[in-house]
Design brief:
The complex is a heterodimer of chains A (319) and B (339). By secondary structure, chain A is mostly helical. Helix content of chain A is 75%, strand content 1%. Chain A is globular. The relative contact order of chain A is 0.14. Chain B contains 13 helices and 11 strands. Classes of the chains: A mainly alpha (319), B alpha/beta (339).
Chain lengths: 319, 339
């Protein structure tokens, strides 16, 4: 009888836990579907108001360099270029820096408590609100760019990227601040990737006589590459979508400009600046620009995913 | 008494407070629109509601465009706009629209040139600067009007608005009036594509740009320049005289305005006269001709009446130009048609 009761109770618990797991299954389903549905909802509510502009401008939206609200002419090229330029420069600066910090934090150059502190401080950079980065950029980065931008344009002005005249509010200023803003993302994810490289690989490398730096560059980094690529994609996405700090620093010019020292504009900044007072076709054109931004981010993520897969395949044998 | 019971009683009390319709017979007015006159309107609200505690007025400074939108969609009791309303916008409001110029301001060209005071800009000079044709401060076109002033060879950084703005509208309207080339190349509007320069959001954004950039010049409301202690240039008016923006020169400008019959909407886009400052504008309150809710209409009427009469005395200290007497009379006349 005792046994009978025990098995009854066990049965009951099992049933209950099964029921509970069913319940959790439902929750996970609902949560995932809700996330996908919300994304579709957002895209739909961007596309619907964008339709008049899509019909009116069509593909010339992506080829025309003139954004003139006054004459209802909308070409997004200056902002597409500005977005790509500022995010790319930011990543070119932040990626090597971030990977080196990640390496430093994952190797035993310094005692653990000190590394932990540095890691904490770097990750704290991600907690600073973007408006504060904007203010810091105005107070610190703009004067620096104004001073050295002149030198750059005087000496390297023949390169279109450094053509003068140099202004403080410029693509370069925005890129520098963006680099700092995406640094914690790159550092944190790269560090995790490097730390999770199996110890056996490292030991094997040492065993065949490789030095520490040979091990780092030939074994650790290639093995951690998928993680580092993922970090880069996330950082790129953040840089492209960043609005407040960029709008405060880039100079918000609707003119196409390849020079890093001139004022530029990004899609996100354009939306933030013009949406409030927009009317008529301008609203529609801004929605079209938002759609372009979403597509651009999607494209970057997909490209990143592809790279990630290939990288994983190539190192699959090693792991 | 237990805390539970206390909180329950509190809930009941709150429920009664919020549900009983005439616990306090307050009339609430919502207004929304232009940011430029917002400080003055807030002041009017504070002063007016002092003597009428049963009236609550909220004004949201959401911008002229958004103000017109909310007014057209019947979301507010009154709107406000620096660019008034266009004919087709007025036609879209079925209750009818009464435009009331409520206050006015000058637009100044504030600059950042350490050591240079009392800068004078001829019409050719400031049009040229904003067209991007004059690039250095020691350009002969600027130097000609500033004899004895040592102008540096600094590059000119033009500062403009990145958002749609009534300030841009009035300034580009003036530039288009005095320069066919500007009209052709840039045109007038709340959001134009400037041939040169950096842009910031709002009057405060442009003010910040001017302050932080040596060699900068930008167009901002007179009040912002005064409060931030940024120097601004004396501009050459139609009669050829160089005039600094002051309350008096602004009043002189407003006095030249000729309103069309039945509609208080006009811009002194290039006023004539020796003492007039060339760029000044009214800013408008947008009222319905016939309010569906009579008490609301009556309250709006009283409040605007207060603003046009007693309220004008707060204008000058806040950096606005008080309305000339003739304009106030016309406004009060127009206000009578609001029901």
């Amino acid at each position: 009888m005792h046994q009978g009761r025990g098995s009854y109770a066990r049965n009951w618990i099992m049933k209950k836990s099964r029921r509970r797991s069913d319940f959790f299954l439902v929750i996970t389903w609902v949560a995932s579907i809700a996330a996908v549905a919300t994304l579709l909802w957002i895209v739909e509510s961007i596309i619907t108001p964008a339709i008049p502009a899509i019909q009116k401008t069509g593909l010339s939206f992506f080829t025309s360099t003139v954004w003139d609200v006054n004459r209802d002419r909308y070409g997004a090229v200056p902002f597409l270029v500005g977005t790509a330029l500022s995010s790319t420069i930011a990543l070119l600066l932040a990626l090597p820096l971030g990977v080196f910090i990640a390496l430093f934090l994952s190797e035993n150059f310094l005692p653990l408590p000190i590394r932990q502190t540095i890691r904490f401080v770097v990750e704290l950079l991600a907690a600073i609100p973007s408006v504060v980065y904007g203010l810091w950029g105005i107070a610190v980065v703009i004067p620096i760019v104004r001073q050295f931008g002149g030198l750059l344009s005087d000496n390297l002005g023949f390169i279109p990227l450094f053509e003068g005249p140099a202004t403080g509010n410029s693509t370069l200023t925005a890129s520098l601040v963006l680099a700092l803003m995406v640094l914690p993302t790159i550092t944190a994810i790269s560090r995790t990737a490097i730390v999770s490289v199996p110890l056996t690989l490292r030991e094997g490398s040492y065993a065949v006589g490789a030095t520490r730096w040979e091990t780092i560059f030939r074994v650790l980094l290639p093995t951690a590459a998928p993680g580092i690529v993922a970090a880069t994609i996330l950082a790129f996405g953040r840089a492209m979508g960043e609005t407040m700090a960029v709008a405060m620093l880039i100079g918000n010019s609707p003119r196409l400009n390849w020079s890093l020292l001139s004022p530029g504009g990004t899609l996100a900044g354009l939306l933030a600046n013009q949406f409030g007072e927009a009317h008529g076709l301008q609203v529609s054109a801004l929605m079209y620009a938002a759609l372009a931004l979403v597509l651009l981010t999607l494209f970057v993520n997909m490209a990143g995913e592809a790279v990630l897969r290939r990288a994983q395949k190539s190192i699959a044998g090693v792991r | 008494m237990s805390t539970l019971r206390q909180s329950f009683l509190l809930l009941v009390y709150l429920a009664i407070q919020f549900t009983s319709p005439k616990a306090h017979a307050t009339t609430q007015l919502q207004g929304a629109g232009a940011t430029f006159p917002a400080p003055l309107y807030q002041r009017w609200i504070a002063e007016y509601t002092k003597s009428t505690p049963d009236i609550q007025i909220n004004y949201q400074a959401v911008g002229s465009g958004a103000g017109i939108k909310q007014f057209t969609q019947n979301l507010v009791a009154f709107g406000a706009s620096d660019a008034a309303m266009k004919d087709d916008e007025i036609a879209g409001v079925k209750q009818g629209v009464v435009l009331i110029p409520a206050t006015a301001g000058s637009i100044v060209l504030a600059y950042n040139l350490p050591g240079v005071e009392n800068l004078k800009l001829s019409r050719e000079a400031y049009v040229g600067i904003f067209l991007g044709k004059i690039k250095k401060w020691n350009d002969p076109a600027i130097a000609k009007a500033n004899e004895g002033v040592k102008l540096p060879g600094t590059a000119i950084t033009v500062c403009e608005r990145s958002d749609g703005s009534g300030t841009t509208f009035v300034f580009t309207k003036h530039l288009s009036t005095i320069s066919p080339e500007f009209k052709d190349q840039v045109g007038e509007g709340t959001s134009v594509t400037w041939p040169t320069g950096v842009a910031g959001k709002g009057n405060d954004g442009v003010t910040a740009l001017i302050k932080q950039t040596p060699g900068a010049i930008g167009y901002i409301e007179y009040g912002y320049a005064v409060h931030n202690k940024i120097p601004f240039a004396a501009l050459q008016n139609k009669s050829g005289a160089f005039v600094t923006a002051t309350t008096a020169s602004g009043e002189a400008t407003l006095a030249t305005t000729q309103f069309p019959p039945n509609l208080l909407r006009a811009w002194p886009s290039d006023p004539d006269g020796k003492e007039v400052y060339p760029i000044a504008t009214f800013t408008w309150l947008l009222l319905y001709k016939k309010y569906d809710n009579a008490p609301i209409g009556e309250t709006v009427n009283k409040f605007v009446n207060f603003g046009l009469t007693d309220g004008q005395k707060f204008a000058e200290e806040l950096g606005y130009i008080p309305l000339p007497k003739e304009v106030v009379e016309k406004c009060l006349e127009a206000l009578k048609s609001v029901q």
